[in-house]
Amino acid sequence: MTKVEATNLKKALVKKFGGRAEFEQAGRPGRYRFAVTSEKFGRMPHMKRQDEAWKIADKILKPDAALDISLILTFAPRDLAPGRSPRHAV
Prior knowledge:
By secondary structure, the chain is α+β, with helices and mostly antiparallel strands. The protein contains three helices and three strands, in the order αββααβ.
């Protein structure tokens, strides 16, 4: 995946869910991981969050580029509240 493709996915995730999205290189060049934080995820079970995020990735990326996503983390703001254990975030 190119950095332009990663940026386009980030923009599409923000457009769909609001909030904010970030990405960073994961391991080898061209491989990225994403984190999305949105209020919409507060009302959504974890598996639904993942399904919705991956639908966006599959919609805007070619299949070979989608294979370069190591993961997409989906958080509601409350998941990242101080004092919350990471195991409660997902």
